[in-house]
Amino acid sequence: MSHDKSVFETNNYRDEEELIQFIEDTMLAYLIPGLSISIVKDGNIVWEEHFGYANIDENIVVDENTLFMLASISKTVTATALMQLFEDGLFSLDDDIDDYLPFDVNHPDYLTPISFKMLLTHTSGIKDNWDVMPYYDGDSELELGYYLEQYLIPEGEFYGSNSNFTNSMPGTNYIYSNIGAALIGFLVEEISSQPFNDYCNENIFEPLSMNNAFWFLSEIENLDQVALPYESIGGSGYVDDCSGDGDCCPESWIGDGFADCENQEWDCDLTCYDNDGGDCGDGGSDPYCGDGFCNGDEDYYTCPDDCSGGGCGEVNLTEYMHYGYSDYPSGQLRTTSNNLAKFMAAYINNGIYNGNRILESETVEMIKSIPYPDIDPQQGLIWYYKNTGVNGRTLFGHNGGDIGVTTEMFISISENIGVIVLTNSSNYNAIIQIENVVFDFAEETNFTILGDINVDGIINILDVILIVNIILGINDFDALADLNGDGNINILDIVALVNIILSN
Q1: d(CA 38, CA 50)
Q2: Dist. CA 486–CA 324, nearest whole Å
Q3: End-to-end CA distance of the chain
Q4: Strands 248-250 and 445-448, how do they pair?
Q5: pLDDT band at 247 (very low <50, low <70, confident <90, very high)
Q6: Partners of residue 357 on adjacent β-strands
């Protein structure tokens, strides 16, 4: 049983006001403009809060309708679309993708075919060449298929054998690949004979009632609804580049598992910091070797001194215009925290939300599995596991980061709890801090679902009878029976409750 409305809650341990104060204090400390949070527990969306501004200059606050760019969380939707087609028996995960594409994708050094499973686990040998992965003001000027063909075929205008492919055989090494994820989206187009965004609308967004989910800015009627991206440059959260050239680099890149050596993004060389020497020693092949908490030797409320290099100057909050890119299935989806929570709830509920199934339970379990444990023991099919180091918590999901964007969507499978944090800021460390305390709050709180009047965890005819008794004066007023929130309990609340029952 699932539905959107919540949420009167009782709290056993942590006070809700304390949580909100922590979030607001963290946003202030790290100059985070806007933020939206949703909690899913036992398959229900039980808590939502919105903070700050979607647009500072225009004084537009974040609310339940604010769209955030998801960045790489988008890949989970892209993978879901592909796995739906897998369920239809249209391909096998071990099939050569060339059998389904209008052009061939071959590693320049190996004859090994690239399979669907390799794309889904970032082991295809296709890597990101940021020199030919431009950002656009607004949506990309290039069609998805054209761009990928020109990136992947030897005669293509964006092709480079060394820059676009790894030096390892497909299926033998993990390299995170946005281009590989975009290729998954194009395979959905080719196999379904539908534009990728149309396929997602019809087969994922509509069944889940995700009425505020868009791949393209051109699909959004009111762009004021979309949170503008912001970057806080300098001050807290940034450190001096190790090369001595004065570059200011994100502190969160230290110990993140990626090789932030010379000639990386922003020309950041972070090898002089404790954890990044290891990142750079072997090419940074393991994205999970860092914990995201500076050097990991303090709790998640603080940051050790040796991570705060300083010297980056005064903090400057920079606003960016809405942007897009040609590999859009890898990161360009924009939606609300509530809409994304419906998607996450479907995974918690073995593929079902509000009575609508988007995946079979067996497929969800397949996505949770680890196909290549010897290559990466935490990588499922696009979705992955992370060990937080907090309360022994292991989470399953995905995060995202881009210019003025940080997003988290993770599920504690043992607790049946999911947390979503979306923001228009690039401060990863701050968002991780918030995510951890929200999980604490969700684990320690008993949530009561609106409409569950007898608080038995199920909305059914017994709750309808109790509403009738309240209307007849037999039972006292109960806020859980006021489904439309108008302060009165009447026939309108009965209708709303019956609709919930019928929808499930």
Answers
A1: 9
A2: 41
A3: 6
A4: unpaired
A5: low
A6: 352
Say which amino acid occupies 257.
G
Separation of alpha carbons 406 and 109, rounded Å: 36
- Cα distance between residue 345 and residue 64, in whole Å: 17
Residue positions counted in the chain: 504
Q: pLDDT band for position 484 (50/70/90)?
A: confident
Q: 11-15, 45-49, 167-171, 261-265: which has the highest mean pLDDT?
A: 167-171
Residue located via tokens 């939300």: 353
Residue predicted with more confidence, 101 or 1? 101
Partners of residue 67 on adjacent β-strands: 226
Distance CA 240, CA 249 (A): 6
CA dist 161 and 151 (Å) reads: 10
3-state secondary structure of 167: coil
CA distance linking residue 209 with residue 126, whole number of Å? 34
CA atoms within 13 A on the CB side of 41: 22
Nearest to residue 390, comparing CAs of 439, 446, 445? 439
Query: All domains of the chain, ordered by start, with CATH?
Result: 71-226+322-444 (3.40.710.10), 461-503 (no CATH)
Lowest-pLDDT choice from 15-29, 93-107, 410-424: 15-29
pLDDT at 414 over 70: yes
E strand or H helix that includes residue 232 = strand 230-233
Q: Are 381 and 366 in contact, with CB atoms under 8 Å apart?
A: yes
Q: What is the pLDDT of residue 328?
A: 98
Q: In this structure, what token pair is assigned to residue 43?
A: 């398959």
pTM: 0.78
